[in-house]
Amino acid sequence: MEKPVLDIRNLAIRYAGASRDSVRGVSFTLGRERLGIVGESGSGKSTVGRAILKLLPTAQITADRMQFEDIDLLKTSEREMLKIRGRRMSMILQDPKYSLNPIQRVGRQVAETYMRHFPATKAEAKAKTLAMLEAVKIRDPERVHDLYPHEISGGMGQRIMIAMMLLAEPELVIADEPTSALDVTVRLQVLEILNGLVRDRGIGLIMISHDLNLVRNFCDRVLIMFDGQVVETLRASELDNAQHPYTRGLLAAQPRIGDRRKMLSVLDRRPEWSQEVTA
Amino acid sequence: MTSNVEIRNLSISFGEGPAAVKVLPGVNFSVEAGECFGLVGESGSGKSTVLRCISMLTDFWQGQISIGGRNVRDIPRLERCRLLQMVFQDPYGSLHPRQSVRTTLSEPLKIHGLDDHEGRMRRVIRDVGLTADFIDRFPHQMSGGQRQRIAIARALILEPSLLLLDEPTSALDVSVQAEILNLLVRLREERGLTYLMVTHDLAVVDHMCDRFAVMLRGEVTEVLPRAAIQGNHATHPYARELIGASLEYEGAL
User: Fold this and answer.
1) Within 13 Å, how many C-alpha atoms sit on residue B42's CB side?
2) Which of A43, A145, B7, B205 is the most exposed place for a label (fewest CB within 10 A)?
3) With an 8 Å Cβ cutoff, is B197 touching chain A?
4) Cα separation of A74 and B149, whole Å?
Protein backbone atom coordinates (compact mmCIF):
# COMPACT_ATOMS: atom_id res chain seq x y z
CA MET A 1 0.00 0.00 0.00
CA GLU A 2 1.23 3.50 -0.82
CA LYS A 3 2.37 5.66 2.04
CA PRO A 4 -0.63 7.44 3.61
CA VAL A 5 -0.90 11.22 3.59
CA LEU A 6 -2.29 11.23 7.07
CA ASP A 7 -2.17 8.62 9.81
CA ILE A 8 -4.18 9.22 12.97
CA ARG A 9 -4.22 6.74 15.84
CA ASN A 10 -6.37 6.95 18.91
CA LEU A 11 -7.05 10.68 18.78
CA ALA A 12 -8.78 12.23 21.78
CA ILE A 13 -9.74 15.89 22.12
CA ARG A 14 -10.98 17.62 25.23
CA TYR A 15 -12.06 21.26 25.16
CA ALA A 16 -10.80 23.44 28.00
CA GLY A 17 -13.14 23.16 30.98
CA ALA A 18 -15.09 20.20 29.57
CA SER A 19 -15.70 17.25 31.85
CA ARG A 20 -15.24 14.63 29.13
CA ASP A 21 -13.50 14.18 25.81
CA SER A 22 -15.41 15.55 22.84
CA VAL A 23 -13.62 13.13 20.55
CA ARG A 24 -12.38 9.74 21.69
CA GLY A 25 -10.38 6.93 20.16
CA VAL A 26 -10.52 8.15 16.55
CA SER A 27 -8.15 6.33 14.23
CA PHE A 28 -7.90 6.45 10.47
CA THR A 29 -5.45 6.74 7.63
CA LEU A 30 -5.91 8.84 4.55
CA GLY A 31 -4.25 8.07 1.22
CA ARG A 32 -4.65 10.07 -1.96
CA GLU A 33 -8.37 9.59 -1.76
CA ARG A 34 -11.57 11.27 -0.67
CA LEU A 35 -12.58 10.40 2.85
CA GLY A 36 -15.97 11.48 4.17
CA ILE A 37 -16.68 12.06 7.84
CA VAL A 38 -20.40 12.11 8.56
CA GLY A 39 -22.42 12.43 11.71
CA GLU A 40 -24.97 14.68 13.36
CA SER A 41 -24.24 18.11 14.77
CA GLY A 42 -22.17 17.72 17.90
CA SER A 43 -20.72 14.36 16.91
CA GLY A 44 -17.19 15.80 16.79
CA LYS A 45 -16.56 15.66 13.04
CA SER A 46 -15.52 19.30 12.68
CA THR A 47 -13.47 19.06 15.86
CA VAL A 48 -11.40 16.28 14.26
CA GLY A 49 -10.81 18.46 11.19
CA ARG A 50 -9.70 21.40 13.27
CA ALA A 51 -7.45 19.26 15.44
CA ILE A 52 -5.57 18.03 12.36
CA LEU A 53 -4.81 21.64 11.43
CA LYS A 54 -4.08 22.36 15.10
CA LEU A 55 -6.66 25.10 15.16
CA LEU A 56 -7.77 24.31 18.72
CA PRO A 57 -5.20 26.15 20.82
CA THR A 58 -7.02 25.71 24.14
CA ALA A 59 -8.13 22.13 23.70
CA GLN A 60 -6.11 19.23 24.96
CA ILE A 61 -5.23 16.91 22.07
CA THR A 62 -3.76 13.49 22.72
CA ALA A 63 -3.06 10.70 20.27
CA ASP A 64 -0.79 7.70 19.87
CA ARG A 65 0.16 8.96 16.45
CA MET A 66 -0.65 12.00 14.28
CA GLN A 67 1.55 11.76 11.24
CA PHE A 68 1.08 14.04 8.24
CA GLU A 69 3.50 12.97 5.47
CA ASP A 70 6.93 13.55 7.07
CA ILE A 71 5.59 15.68 9.91
CA ASP A 72 4.69 14.51 13.40
CA LEU A 73 1.81 16.84 14.21
CA LEU A 74 2.01 16.03 17.90
CA LYS A 75 5.45 17.62 18.12
CA THR A 76 4.95 20.51 15.72
CA SER A 77 5.12 23.97 17.26
CA GLU A 78 2.73 26.77 16.34
CA ARG A 79 5.63 28.51 14.57
CA GLU A 80 6.16 25.51 12.33
CA MET A 81 2.41 25.10 11.83
CA LEU A 82 2.29 28.56 10.27
CA LYS A 83 4.43 27.21 7.44
CA ILE A 84 2.32 24.09 7.04
CA ARG A 85 -1.17 25.53 7.36
CA GLY A 86 -2.41 26.91 4.08
CA ARG A 87 0.72 25.62 2.33
CA ARG A 88 0.69 21.86 2.79
CA MET A 89 -2.73 21.37 4.32
CA SER A 90 -5.70 23.68 4.13
CA MET A 91 -9.34 23.94 4.96
CA ILE A 92 -12.46 24.99 3.07
CA LEU A 93 -15.26 26.18 5.34
CA GLN A 94 -19.00 26.10 4.99
CA ASP A 95 -19.97 29.60 4.03
CA PRO A 96 -17.78 31.73 1.73
CA LYS A 97 -19.62 34.84 2.98
CA TYR A 98 -17.84 34.46 6.30
CA SER A 99 -14.54 33.09 5.03
CA LEU A 100 -13.72 35.99 2.72
CA ASN A 101 -12.70 39.41 3.93
CA PRO A 102 -15.61 41.66 2.96
CA ILE A 103 -13.51 44.76 2.32
CA GLN A 104 -10.83 43.27 0.08
CA ARG A 105 -11.12 42.37 -3.57
CA VAL A 106 -11.29 38.60 -3.94
CA GLY A 107 -8.32 38.36 -6.32
CA ARG A 108 -6.05 39.97 -3.79
CA GLN A 109 -7.17 37.49 -1.14
CA VAL A 110 -6.39 34.56 -3.40
CA ALA A 111 -3.01 36.01 -4.30
CA GLU A 112 -2.19 36.52 -0.62
CA THR A 113 -2.05 32.75 -0.10
CA TYR A 114 0.57 32.53 -2.80
CA MET A 115 2.59 35.52 -1.64
CA ARG A 116 2.51 34.21 1.91
CA HIS A 117 4.10 30.90 1.05
CA PHE A 118 6.21 31.46 -2.05
CA PRO A 119 8.75 34.10 -2.94
CA ALA A 120 6.93 35.87 -5.76
CA THR A 121 6.33 39.32 -7.11
CA LYS A 122 2.83 40.75 -7.13
CA ALA A 123 2.63 40.30 -10.89
CA GLU A 124 3.58 36.62 -10.65
CA ALA A 125 1.04 36.06 -7.89
CA LYS A 126 -1.63 37.74 -9.96
CA ALA A 127 -0.85 35.58 -12.96
CA LYS A 128 -1.06 32.46 -10.77
CA THR A 129 -4.34 33.71 -9.30
CA LEU A 130 -5.91 34.30 -12.70
CA ALA A 131 -4.85 30.86 -13.88
CA MET A 132 -6.32 29.29 -10.75
CA LEU A 133 -9.60 31.21 -11.07
CA GLU A 134 -9.82 29.81 -14.55
CA ALA A 135 -9.12 26.31 -13.23
CA VAL A 136 -12.14 26.58 -10.92
CA LYS A 137 -14.24 27.42 -14.00
CA ILE A 138 -14.71 31.12 -13.41
CA ARG A 139 -15.54 32.43 -16.86
CA ASP A 140 -14.11 35.92 -16.71
CA PRO A 141 -11.21 35.76 -14.25
CA GLU A 142 -9.93 39.28 -15.00
CA ARG A 143 -13.27 40.80 -14.01
CA VAL A 144 -13.94 38.53 -11.03
CA HIS A 145 -10.44 39.20 -9.72
CA ASP A 146 -11.43 42.80 -8.98
CA LEU A 147 -14.82 42.12 -7.39
CA TYR A 148 -15.62 42.35 -3.70
CA PRO A 149 -17.14 39.36 -1.86
CA HIS A 150 -20.62 40.95 -1.74
CA GLU A 151 -20.62 41.19 -5.52
CA ILE A 152 -20.32 37.45 -6.11
CA SER A 153 -22.74 34.57 -5.63
CA GLY A 154 -22.34 31.82 -3.06
CA GLY A 155 -21.26 29.27 -5.64
CA MET A 156 -18.64 31.60 -7.07
CA GLY A 157 -17.47 32.45 -3.55
CA GLN A 158 -16.92 28.81 -2.77
CA ARG A 159 -15.02 28.35 -6.04
CA ILE A 160 -12.81 31.27 -5.05
CA MET A 161 -12.18 29.60 -1.69
CA ILE A 162 -11.21 26.43 -3.52
CA ALA A 163 -8.88 28.43 -5.77
CA MET A 164 -7.30 30.04 -2.72
CA MET A 165 -6.81 26.72 -0.98
CA LEU A 166 -5.42 24.87 -3.98
CA LEU A 167 -3.08 27.62 -5.19
CA ALA A 168 -0.42 26.57 -2.71
CA GLU A 169 -0.72 22.98 -3.98
CA PRO A 170 -1.39 21.38 -0.62
CA GLU A 171 -1.17 17.64 -0.05
CA LEU A 172 -4.23 17.59 2.21
CA VAL A 173 -7.48 19.53 2.01
CA ILE A 174 -10.12 19.41 4.72
CA ALA A 175 -13.50 20.57 3.45
CA ASP A 176 -15.93 21.26 6.28
CA GLU A 177 -19.47 21.24 4.85
CA PRO A 178 -18.22 22.91 1.65
CA THR A 179 -21.57 22.94 -0.12
CA SER A 180 -24.17 23.05 2.65
CA ALA A 181 -24.81 26.75 2.11
CA LEU A 182 -25.26 26.38 -1.65
CA ASP A 183 -28.26 25.62 -3.84
CA VAL A 184 -28.48 22.11 -5.14
CA THR A 185 -27.90 23.17 -8.76
CA VAL A 186 -24.68 24.96 -7.77
CA ARG A 187 -23.61 22.27 -5.32
CA LEU A 188 -22.93 19.76 -8.04
CA GLN A 189 -20.76 22.18 -10.02
CA VAL A 190 -18.67 23.06 -6.98
CA LEU A 191 -18.26 19.41 -6.05
CA GLU A 192 -17.24 18.53 -9.62
CA ILE A 193 -14.54 21.19 -9.56
CA LEU A 194 -13.25 20.13 -6.16
CA ASN A 195 -13.34 16.54 -7.26
CA GLY A 196 -11.46 17.13 -10.49
CA LEU A 197 -8.72 19.16 -8.85
CA VAL A 198 -8.25 16.67 -6.05
CA ARG A 199 -8.07 13.80 -8.51
CA ASP A 200 -5.72 15.49 -10.97
CA ARG A 201 -3.33 16.78 -8.35
CA GLY A 202 -3.32 13.71 -6.14
CA ILE A 203 -4.52 15.55 -3.04
CA GLY A 204 -5.89 13.77 0.02
CA LEU A 205 -9.36 15.14 0.77
CA ILE A 206 -11.34 14.93 3.98
CA MET A 207 -14.95 15.89 3.41
CA ILE A 208 -16.79 16.69 6.63
CA SER A 209 -20.55 16.66 6.13
CA HIS A 210 -23.87 15.80 7.65
CA ASP A 211 -25.17 14.93 4.21
CA LEU A 212 -25.24 11.22 3.47
CA ASN A 213 -26.01 11.78 -0.22
CA LEU A 214 -22.95 13.92 -0.59
CA VAL A 215 -20.53 11.40 0.88
CA ARG A 216 -22.24 8.54 -0.92
CA ASN A 217 -21.67 10.19 -4.30
CA PHE A 218 -18.42 12.06 -3.83
CA CYS A 219 -16.23 10.10 -1.44
CA ASP A 220 -14.30 6.85 -1.64
CA ARG A 221 -14.54 5.91 2.01
CA VAL A 222 -16.74 7.14 4.86
CA LEU A 223 -16.24 7.34 8.62
CA ILE A 224 -19.44 7.58 10.60
CA MET A 225 -19.13 9.46 13.88
CA PHE A 226 -21.44 9.38 16.84
CA ASP A 227 -20.80 11.09 20.15
CA GLY A 228 -17.11 11.68 19.47
CA GLN A 229 -16.30 8.21 18.22
CA VAL A 230 -16.06 6.50 14.87
CA VAL A 231 -18.76 3.85 14.99
CA GLU A 232 -18.24 2.50 11.49
CA THR A 233 -15.94 2.84 8.46
CA LEU A 234 -17.27 1.90 5.05
CA ARG A 235 -16.59 2.19 1.36
CA ALA A 236 -18.95 4.93 0.17
CA SER A 237 -20.41 2.62 -2.45
CA GLU A 238 -21.37 0.20 0.30
CA LEU A 239 -23.05 2.78 2.50
CA ASP A 240 -26.41 1.10 2.05
CA ASN A 241 -24.99 -2.10 3.51
CA ALA A 242 -24.00 -0.38 6.75
CA GLN A 243 -24.09 -2.64 9.79
CA HIS A 244 -24.08 -0.24 12.72
CA PRO A 245 -27.60 0.62 13.92
CA TYR A 246 -26.70 4.31 14.07
CA THR A 247 -25.65 4.44 10.40
CA ARG A 248 -28.70 2.44 9.42
CA GLY A 249 -30.87 4.76 11.47
CA LEU A 250 -29.46 7.84 9.73
CA LEU A 251 -30.01 6.29 6.31
CA ALA A 252 -33.56 5.27 7.14
CA ALA A 253 -34.44 8.71 8.51
CA GLN A 254 -33.77 10.33 5.16
CA PRO A 255 -36.69 10.93 2.81
CA ARG A 256 -35.80 9.80 -0.69
CA ILE A 257 -37.33 10.80 -3.98
CA GLY A 258 -39.66 8.09 -5.20
CA ASP A 259 -40.09 6.38 -1.85
CA ARG A 260 -43.47 5.11 -0.91
CA ARG A 261 -44.85 7.60 1.61
CA LYS A 262 -44.68 6.25 5.07
CA MET A 263 -43.61 7.45 8.47
CA LEU A 264 -39.90 8.18 8.37
CA SER A 265 -38.09 5.99 10.81
CA VAL A 266 -36.77 7.84 13.79
CA LEU A 267 -33.38 7.24 15.31
CA ASP A 268 -33.53 5.39 18.58
CA ARG A 269 -30.29 6.48 20.24
CA ARG A 270 -28.78 3.75 22.37
CA PRO A 271 -26.50 4.64 25.27
CA GLU A 272 -24.29 1.64 24.50
CA TRP A 273 -23.24 3.25 21.18
CA SER A 274 -21.29 5.75 23.22
CA GLN A 275 -19.49 3.04 25.11
CA GLU A 276 -18.75 0.14 22.84
CA VAL A 277 -15.73 1.54 21.02
CA THR A 278 -13.78 2.55 24.10
CA ALA A 279 -14.54 -0.74 25.85
CA MET B 1 -63.13 27.25 8.14
CA THR B 2 -61.64 26.50 4.75
CA SER B 3 -58.32 28.05 3.99
CA ASN B 4 -57.61 27.73 0.32
CA VAL B 5 -55.11 30.33 -0.80
CA GLU B 6 -55.40 32.30 -4.04
CA ILE B 7 -52.53 34.49 -5.16
CA ARG B 8 -53.05 36.75 -8.16
CA ASN B 9 -50.45 39.12 -9.61
CA LEU B 10 -48.58 39.41 -6.35
CA SER B 11 -45.71 41.84 -6.79
CA ILE B 12 -43.45 43.68 -4.40
CA SER B 13 -40.56 46.12 -4.69
CA PHE B 14 -38.01 46.98 -2.06
CA GLY B 15 -36.47 50.42 -1.99
CA GLU B 16 -37.78 53.60 -3.56
CA GLY B 17 -37.47 55.60 -6.75
CA PRO B 18 -34.90 54.55 -9.32
CA ALA B 19 -33.15 52.27 -6.77
CA ALA B 20 -36.27 50.18 -6.23
CA VAL B 21 -35.81 46.47 -6.83
CA LYS B 22 -38.77 44.49 -7.98
CA VAL B 23 -38.44 41.19 -6.12
CA LEU B 24 -41.65 39.52 -7.18
CA PRO B 25 -42.74 40.63 -10.65
CA GLY B 26 -46.12 38.91 -10.58
CA VAL B 27 -46.79 35.66 -8.80
CA ASN B 28 -49.86 33.54 -9.44
CA PHE B 29 -50.75 30.24 -7.87
CA SER B 30 -53.42 28.71 -5.71
CA VAL B 31 -53.42 26.21 -2.89
CA GLU B 32 -56.46 24.07 -2.17
CA ALA B 33 -57.82 23.73 1.34
CA GLY B 34 -56.18 20.78 3.08
CA GLU B 35 -53.38 20.58 0.53
CA CYS B 36 -49.67 20.52 1.23
CA PHE B 37 -48.14 22.84 -1.35
CA GLY B 38 -44.39 23.26 -1.79
CA LEU B 39 -42.41 26.28 -2.95
CA VAL B 40 -38.96 25.45 -4.26
CA GLY B 41 -36.24 27.41 -6.03
CA GLU B 42 -32.76 28.75 -5.48
CA SER B 43 -31.83 31.21 -2.75
CA GLY B 44 -33.06 34.67 -3.56
CA SER B 45 -35.88 33.46 -5.79
CA GLY B 46 -38.54 34.97 -3.51
CA LYS B 47 -39.94 31.85 -1.81
CA SER B 48 -39.83 33.25 1.70
CA THR B 49 -41.00 36.66 0.50
CA VAL B 50 -44.20 35.05 -0.78
CA LEU B 51 -44.85 33.61 2.69
CA ARG B 52 -44.15 36.95 4.32
CA CYS B 53 -46.62 38.64 1.98
CA ILE B 54 -49.36 36.10 2.72
CA SER B 55 -48.86 36.49 6.44
CA MET B 56 -48.74 40.31 6.10
CA LEU B 57 -45.36 40.41 7.87
CA THR B 58 -44.50 42.36 4.75
CA ASP B 59 -47.58 44.35 3.75
CA PHE B 60 -46.54 46.76 1.00
CA TRP B 61 -47.23 44.39 -1.86
CA GLN B 62 -49.57 44.83 -4.80
CA GLY B 63 -51.97 42.29 -6.19
CA GLN B 64 -54.48 40.02 -4.59
CA ILE B 65 -54.09 37.38 -1.91
CA SER B 66 -57.21 35.70 -0.64
CA ILE B 67 -57.61 33.03 1.98
CA GLY B 68 -60.86 31.09 2.12
CA GLY B 69 -62.26 33.50 -0.49
CA ARG B 70 -61.54 36.61 1.61
CA ASN B 71 -59.01 39.26 0.72
CA VAL B 72 -56.22 38.93 3.28
CA ARG B 73 -56.16 42.73 3.67
CA ASP B 74 -59.79 42.71 4.77
CA ILE B 75 -59.26 40.16 7.52
CA PRO B 76 -58.73 41.92 10.88
CA ARG B 77 -55.36 41.18 12.44
CA LEU B 78 -56.59 39.14 15.39
CA GLU B 79 -58.68 36.99 13.12
CA ARG B 80 -55.81 36.62 10.68
CA CYS B 81 -53.57 35.30 13.44
CA ARG B 82 -56.10 32.62 14.23
CA LEU B 83 -56.37 31.72 10.58
CA LEU B 84 -52.72 31.44 9.63
CA GLN B 85 -49.43 31.03 11.44
CA MET B 86 -45.83 30.70 10.37
CA VAL B 87 -42.97 28.39 11.37
CA PHE B 88 -39.48 29.69 10.62
CA GLN B 89 -36.32 27.99 9.51
CA ASP B 90 -34.05 28.38 12.46
CA PRO B 91 -35.44 27.36 15.84
CA TYR B 92 -32.39 29.00 17.46
CA GLY B 93 -33.35 32.35 16.02
CA SER B 94 -37.13 32.21 16.18
CA LEU B 95 -37.60 31.63 19.92
CA HIS B 96 -36.86 34.41 22.38
CA PRO B 97 -33.77 33.29 24.30
CA ARG B 98 -34.92 34.81 27.58
CA GLN B 99 -38.53 33.70 27.48
CA SER B 100 -39.64 30.35 28.82
CA VAL B 101 -41.89 28.14 26.75
CA ARG B 102 -44.70 29.21 29.08
CA THR B 103 -44.23 32.87 28.15
CA THR B 104 -43.93 32.06 24.46
CA LEU B 105 -47.10 30.01 24.43
CA SER B 106 -49.24 32.05 26.80
CA GLU B 107 -48.70 35.42 25.13
CA PRO B 108 -50.92 34.68 22.12
CA LEU B 109 -53.55 33.22 24.48
CA LYS B 110 -53.59 36.47 26.47
CA ILE B 111 -53.75 38.67 23.39
CA HIS B 112 -56.68 36.71 22.05
CA GLY B 113 -58.42 36.55 25.44
CA LEU B 114 -58.67 32.78 25.45
CA ASP B 115 -59.46 30.75 28.56
CA ASP B 116 -57.83 27.67 30.08
CA HIS B 117 -54.22 28.68 29.37
CA GLU B 118 -52.73 25.77 31.29
CA GLY B 119 -54.93 23.19 29.57
CA ARG B 120 -54.28 24.60 26.10
CA MET B 121 -50.54 24.71 26.68
CA ARG B 122 -50.48 21.14 27.94
CA ARG B 123 -52.50 19.90 25.00
CA VAL B 124 -50.39 21.63 22.39
CA ILE B 125 -47.14 20.49 24.02
CA ARG B 126 -48.42 16.92 23.98
CA ASP B 127 -49.55 17.31 20.37
CA VAL B 128 -46.03 18.18 19.28
CA GLY B 129 -44.65 15.14 21.08
CA LEU B 130 -43.15 16.73 24.18
CA THR B 131 -44.06 16.33 27.85
CA ALA B 132 -45.65 18.99 30.06
CA ASP B 133 -42.41 19.66 31.96
CA PHE B 134 -41.08 21.42 28.85
CA ILE B 135 -43.45 24.31 29.61
CA ASP B 136 -41.00 25.72 32.14
CA ARG B 137 -37.88 25.34 30.03
CA PHE B 138 -35.93 28.01 28.22
CA PRO B 139 -34.68 27.63 24.62
CA HIS B 140 -31.09 26.96 25.72
CA GLN B 141 -32.31 23.96 27.72
CA MET B 142 -33.58 22.23 24.59
CA SER B 143 -32.09 20.59 21.51
CA GLY B 144 -32.69 21.94 18.00
CA GLY B 145 -35.45 19.43 17.34
CA GLN B 146 -37.20 20.21 20.62
CA ARG B 147 -37.01 23.93 19.86
CA GLN B 148 -38.57 23.40 16.45
CA ARG B 149 -41.37 21.43 18.15
CA ILE B 150 -41.94 24.42 20.44
CA ALA B 151 -41.97 26.74 17.42
CA ILE B 152 -44.64 24.50 15.89
CA ALA B 153 -46.55 24.45 19.19
CA ARG B 154 -46.44 28.25 19.22
CA ALA B 155 -47.89 28.30 15.73
CA LEU B 156 -50.60 25.79 16.63
CA ILE B 157 -51.78 27.22 19.94
CA LEU B 158 -54.23 29.60 18.24
CA GLU B 159 -55.58 26.67 16.20
CA PRO B 160 -54.98 28.12 12.73
CA SER B 161 -56.06 26.24 9.62
CA LEU B 162 -53.18 27.40 7.41
CA LEU B 163 -49.53 26.90 8.33
CA LEU B 164 -46.80 28.72 6.43
CA LEU B 165 -43.65 26.65 6.85
CA ASP B 166 -40.40 28.39 5.90
CA GLU B 167 -37.76 25.67 5.56
CA PRO B 168 -38.90 24.07 8.81
CA THR B 169 -36.26 21.33 8.81
CA SER B 170 -33.27 22.64 6.89
CA ALA B 171 -31.40 23.68 10.04
CA LEU B 172 -31.84 20.23 11.56
CA ASP B 173 -29.97 16.93 11.28
CA VAL B 174 -31.56 14.32 9.05
CA SER B 175 -32.53 12.19 12.05
CA VAL B 176 -34.27 15.17 13.69
CA GLN B 177 -35.77 16.23 10.37
CA ALA B 178 -37.49 12.83 10.22
CA GLU B 179 -39.13 13.47 13.60
CA ILE B 180 -40.37 16.93 12.59
CA LEU B 181 -41.66 15.78 9.20
CA ASN B 182 -43.52 12.90 10.85
CA LEU B 183 -45.00 15.38 13.30
CA LEU B 184 -46.13 17.71 10.50
CA VAL B 185 -47.69 14.81 8.58
CA ARG B 186 -49.58 13.64 11.67
CA LEU B 187 -50.83 17.13 12.59
CA ARG B 188 -52.13 17.66 9.08
CA GLU B 189 -54.00 14.35 9.16
CA GLU B 190 -55.48 15.06 12.58
CA ARG B 191 -56.44 18.68 12.03
CA GLY B 192 -56.95 18.94 8.28
CA LEU B 193 -54.42 21.76 8.11
CA THR B 194 -53.33 23.42 4.88
CA TYR B 195 -49.57 23.70 4.49
CA LEU B 196 -47.62 26.07 2.30
CA MET B 197 -44.05 24.91 2.65
CA VAL B 198 -40.85 26.54 1.43
CA THR B 199 -37.97 24.15 1.04
CA HIS B 200 -34.94 23.60 -1.13
CA ASP B 201 -35.01 19.83 -0.71
CA LEU B 202 -37.03 18.01 -3.35
CA ALA B 203 -36.91 14.80 -1.33
CA VAL B 204 -38.86 16.65 1.37
CA VAL B 205 -41.31 17.90 -1.27
CA ASP B 206 -41.72 14.36 -2.56
CA HIS B 207 -42.36 13.13 0.96
CA MET B 208 -44.74 15.87 2.08
CA CYS B 209 -46.39 17.79 -0.73
CA ASP B 210 -49.19 17.16 -3.21
CA ARG B 211 -48.07 19.86 -5.64
CA PHE B 212 -45.24 22.35 -5.75
CA ALA B 213 -44.26 25.53 -7.55
CA VAL B 214 -40.75 26.11 -8.88
CA MET B 215 -39.65 29.72 -8.48
CA LEU B 216 -36.91 31.52 -10.36
CA ARG B 217 -36.06 35.21 -9.84
CA GLY B 218 -39.41 35.95 -8.26
CA GLU B 219 -41.50 34.16 -10.83
CA VAL B 220 -43.34 30.88 -10.62
CA THR B 221 -41.98 29.01 -13.61
CA GLU B 222 -44.15 25.96 -13.26
CA VAL B 223 -46.57 24.29 -10.86
CA LEU B 224 -46.04 20.54 -10.83
CA PRO B 225 -47.62 17.55 -9.14
CA ARG B 226 -45.41 15.59 -6.78
CA ALA B 227 -45.25 12.75 -9.30
CA ALA B 228 -43.29 14.95 -11.71
CA ILE B 229 -40.13 14.71 -9.60
CA GLN B 230 -39.31 11.10 -10.24
CA GLY B 231 -38.48 10.85 -13.92
CA ASN B 232 -38.27 14.67 -14.19
CA HIS B 233 -41.49 15.57 -16.02
CA ALA B 234 -40.97 19.33 -15.78
CA THR B 235 -41.19 21.34 -18.99
CA HIS B 236 -39.64 24.68 -17.99
CA PRO B 237 -35.85 24.50 -18.48
CA TYR B 238 -35.03 25.77 -14.99
CA ALA B 239 -37.47 23.41 -13.30
CA ARG B 240 -35.93 20.57 -15.30
CA GLU B 241 -32.45 21.63 -14.25
CA LEU B 242 -33.43 21.84 -10.58
CA ILE B 243 -35.13 18.46 -10.53
CA GLY B 244 -32.32 16.93 -12.59
CA ALA B 245 -29.69 18.26 -10.17
CA SER B 246 -31.65 16.97 -7.19
CA LEU B 247 -32.00 13.52 -8.71
CA GLU B 248 -28.34 13.42 -9.59
CA TYR B 249 -27.34 14.63 -6.16
CA GLU B 250 -29.39 11.92 -4.56
CA GLY B 251 -27.86 9.33 -6.81
CA ALA B 252 -31.36 8.36 -7.91
CA LEU B 253 -30.49 8.28 -11.59
Assistant:
1) 16
2) A145
3) no
4) 44
In order of their start, the domains of chain A are 6-274 (3.40.50.300)
Picking from B176, B229, B249, the nearest residue to A188 by CB comes out as B249
Q: Which of A32, A30, A21 is nearest to A52 (CA)?
A: A30
Distance from CA of A21 to the nearest CA of B (A): 20
Cβ contact A256–B181 (<8 Å): no
Q: What is the pLDDT of residues B146-175, one digit of tens each?
A: 999 999 999 999 999 999 999 998 888 888
Provide the residue count of chain A: 279
Q: For this complex, say whether ipTM is above 0.85.
A: no
| pLDDT, tens digit (0-9, with 9 covering 90-100), for B53-79 | 999 999 999 999 999 999 999 999 999
Q: Which residues contact A241 (CB under 8 A, 6 or more apart)?
A: A234
Question: Does residue B131 sit at the A interface (CB-CB below 8 Å)?
Answer: no
Cα distance between the two ends of chain A: 30
Question: What length does chain B have?
Answer: 253
| CATH architecture type of domain B5-250 | 3-Layer(aba) Sandwich (3.40)
Partner B contacted by A123 (CB < 8 A)? no
